[in-house]
Design a protein that fits this description.
single chain, rod-shaped, 149 residues, 36% helix, 2 domains, two-stranded antiparallel sheet, 11% strand, alpha+beta, two-stranded antiparallel ribbon, 6 helices
């Protein structure tokens, strides 16, 4: 009676009818699946993990599993890891992406506001401080002036 509990590897590297050697199979599997571990490659080809490592080194192929690379949404550079929810390579890119640079209408200083603060408010005028807002209201609407003066 045959044992049906054995599990085949998750991929079929090459049909058994081809005349590739085990060395060629190891190299081909690594090129097709750079995220597979050496143990998984060894299982598929019936070699030890150490032998797979030796073959990969001899053919100048990576022996370590390739980590995922992410692309920064702001600057477009690639980075590893999960910084800032895998969207930005550093805090500076995160801030530059989320903050708008504005100029105060009263004093002319440049300042930054988060885009979420600007959306939906229909602000036509932007001020860096409450003081500048008060000065602008005074100039525009005559703050403290009486009619006829």
């Amino acid at each position: 009676m045959r044992d049906t509990t054995t599990i085949s590897p998750p991929f079929n590297p090459v049909e058994s009818t081809s005349k590739m050697t085990k060395v060629d199979l190891v190299c081909e599997i690594r090129r097709q699946n750079p995220c597979l571990t050496m143990a998984k490659i060894g299982e598929a080809v019936k070699l030890t993990r150490e032998r797979v490592r030796q073959i990969l080194n001899k053919h100048h192929l990576p022996t370590r599993v390739v980590k995922h690379l992410y692309i920064c949404n702001y600057c477009g550079s690639t980075f590893k890891g999960a910084e800032y929810h895998r969207l930005f390579c550093n805090k500076s890119c995160y801030n530059n992406y989320h903050y708008a640079e504005l100029e105060c209408e009263t004093c002319g200083k440049t300042f930054r506001r988060r885009y979420s603060q600007l959306r939906g408010h229909n602000y036509l005028h932007h001020f860096d401080t409450r003081h500048c807002l008060g000065v602008w209201i005074g100039k525009t609407y005559g703050f403290g002036k009486r009619k006829g003066e």
